[in-house]
Amino acid sequence: MSAALRGEPAVVVDRLSKVYEIGSRSRYEPVTPLLTRLRGLAPLGMLAEDEEDDEGDEPLVDDYGSVARDRTLVWALREVSFEVPTGSTFGILGGPGAGKSTLLQILAGSLPPTDGRATLHGRTNPLADAARLFMRVDHTLSRNVQSVARLGGSRVRLSSQQADEVVRFVVGPGPDPIGSKTIFQHLAVGAVLFLEPDVLLLDDLVLADGEFRERCLARIESRQGAQTVIIASRNVDLLSRLCSDGVLLDNGSIVARGSPKALAAGAPAAEAAPVRRGFSHLAAILTVETESTEGAPRQVFRWDEDVVVRVDLEMLGVGELLRCSLEVLAGPETVLSASQPEPHLCAEPGYVSLRARIQARTLVADAYSVNVHVAMSHGGSDFPIAREAAASFRIHTPPEMEPDDGADFDPPNEEIELTEGPDSPAVQWTVGLAGEPD
Amino acid sequence: VERAVERNATTRAPASRVEPAPVARVIEPRRSGLLNAWREFWRYRHLISYFGHLFVAKRYTRTFLGWLWLPLRPGINLATRILVFGGLLGVATDGKTPYALFFLVTTSAWQLFSEAAYWSMRSVELNRGVLRQVYVPRLIPITSAVIPSLLEWAIYIVFVVLGVLWYVVRAPHTFYLHIGLRTLLLPAGLGLMILLGLGIGLLASGMSARARDVRFSFAFIISFLYFLTPVIYPLSAVPEQWRPLAELNPMTGAIEMVKDSLFETHSLSSDAVYVSLIAVFIIWIPGLWLFDRFEVGALHRT
């Protein structure tokens, strides 16, 4: 960092906007096979299955169809402007879906904005979340760390010694980390911190774990002043600890600027604002937990047990169709993803518990983590509202089972990948109303 | 933590003096246009090796023999085909070139095309997880298909060299390859092969990410094309009245360039070359333009 630039802003964000057009067909939506389509064209009543649908849903289907015809623009970010002085730590406070991640992704260059511009002086890091996607189980930990560094650009490198240092930082003095559930996520975070970019971009979500989080924060604090940091979080305490300046984002717009404490005080006022532009007000993910089929919270499952993922949601968008989906990851790789086959109509504001039951033997014995997304279903495409990388669980094989049964339950990589889509038959969804959580 | 702080203190002090002033990076909305597409491609070029390596690994994961398949697949492939076409069916070559050598050269070039087409077509689909969450210009994974195809080609070349050596040992006074001025046509022919292969990926990768039907159909088209193109037979084997039709096939020009460069078959007509070049332009120019429009307009996150 040159002395000439000190005092000048390291990051200038000028009326940055990100607009999504919904109602248009998404590119990755799986196609409906021809025969199914033909069946859909058949007059109602010709096919028995069609009649089995809840009759109460009929008008809903019509609404849904009419909505699909008009396209709406949704502002994930709307004219966001701020400056971050060189060497300072800047906080972005906001609830789930406020636009924090979108903003960071744009600054990191992993999402092009629709309008506006941002000027960054110096190198930035790839976001840890994105970096994790490029990691591979068949590579060594330090090689994975190096590939994260490469993501930052062709000239950004970590030497193998530095990569080993990252691995030591992440793993600590503990036992062999292979198979540890969050190791890849932590490696990505470690790599990002050790890249020592001029402008560090960090999402608080990636620091989820207790002890590791503390180590990362300590490292960020130790470098305070030497690098510019932009950290997004919904945690006021964390932001107050690291920064003295920040902005409060709500529905894609900046509502207030100031110290995190002041922003937190201002947050309720923002809540009452009548104009809602984004989606974040539609629903919030409260908790994600794994439990046994009997409903008891559990993290360890036997190979022949069903795994139930419970998602507690607060639903506020009356009249909206919300669809919950989950992704099960082993290390950095998505091994199973499933969405609710039918979106859930939010009839009145309230709390809802969704349970996704993953059938036994769908997953091999391993450690997994679950990502949960909630999206608004609108005209055939889903628009993300909130996202949570929360629960983790482990499926263990009884030792005597391992030698001969291992192969049978090993899901072939490629096929599982292709189960992506609204309905993986291995996962069953149930919806239940829940009382307000404590 | 203390240790880390210490290390930083010692390493940073000199570093801050040496480092040049950080360059300003401007993030702006994507702009359409071929020039901007090229700039963007250049900025993301470091990811080509990542995707390329992924494609290579994809083929050999979950195999017991692993990387041994790298030489085995082409080896077995070549051996059976040479036996069937050269031995059983007795396909003859133009001149005095032995069939095995002829076949090795043409098939290695064809492989460059079909591998590039296969991987570029699947590139978007295979990397869906990454592409949907991180913005990477689609041209990057598509171009990365060059890496597995060049790797496979290199292995074929080893077989070609072995074949040449075999004939040198058998008949020391006749060298079947003609290395001369015409050999300069070889890189041009191979380049055309790659461009045509990637062109298929450019057109089909988006669709193929949506429906597997596209991939299946293209697999049939390509294997059909393999027999329509003079790969396993010389162009002279095509009856005179059908030859103009054969030269309308854009692959003919490319493969004849390769043959002419090494065997001096003199079967290369300028018409065939024009057809190939025109095909490259027809695929790439509107292809890139459409691709660019598609990329700017469409959502890339669901």
Which stretches of chain B are low in confidence, meaning pLDDT under 50 for 5 or more residues running? Answer: 1-20, 297-302
Spatial extent as radius of gyration of chain A: 23 Å
Helix-residue proportion of chain A: 25-40%
Largest interface by residue count?
Answer: A-B, 58 and 43 residues
Written as H for each helix and E for each strand, in order along the chain, the element string of chain B is HEHHHHHHHHHHHH
Fold blueprint:
The complex is a heterodimer of chains A (438) and B (302).
Chain A: E1 9-22, H1 34-41, H2 48-52, H3 58-69, E2 72-85, E3 89-93, H4 100-108, E4 115-121, H5 128-133, H6 141-151, H7 160-171, H8 183-194, E5 199-203, H9 210-222, E6 228-233, H10 236-242, E7 245-250, E8 253-258, H11 260-271, E9 283-291, E10 300-302, E11 307-315, E12 321-330, E13 333-339, E14 344-345, E15 350-358, E16 366-378, E17 381-396, H12 402-409, H13 413-418, E18 427-434
Parallel strand pairs in A: 3-6, 3-7, 5-6, 10-17
Antiparallel strand pairs in A: 1-2, 1-4, 7-8, 9-11, 11-15, 12-13, 12-14, 12-16, 15-18, 16-17
Helix pairs in contact in A: 6-7, 6-8, 7-8, 8-9
Chain B: H1 2-18, E1 24-27, H2 34-43, H3 48-60, H4 69-88, H5 99-126, H6 128-133, H7 139-144, H8 146-170, H9 185-210, H10 212-228, H11 243-247, H12 250-263, H13 270-297
Helix pairs in contact in B: 4-8, 5-8, 5-9, 5-10, 5-12, 9-10, 9-12, 9-13, 12-13
Summarize the structure.
The complex is a heterodimer of chains A (438) and B (302). With 438 residues, chain A is of the alpha+beta class. Helix content of chain A is 28%, strand content 34%.
Task: Describe this protein's structure.
The complex is a heterodimer of chains A (438) and B (302). With 438 residues, chain A is an alpha+beta fold. Helices cover 28% and strands 34% of the residues of chain A. Chain A has 13 helices and 18 strands. In chain A, the strands form 4 sheets. In chain A, strands 10, 12, 13, 14, 16 and 17 form a 6-stranded mixed sheet that branches. A 5-stranded mixed sheet of chain A has the order 5-6-3-7-8, with helices on both faces. In chain A, strands 9-11-15-18 form a 4-stranded antiparallel sheet, with no helix packed on it. In chain A, a hairpin with a 2-residue loop joins strand 16 (366-378) and strand 17 (381-396). Chain A is globular and about 60 Å long. Chain B has 302 residues and is mostly helical. The two termini of chain B are 41 Å apart. The interface between A and B is large, with 58 and 43 residues.
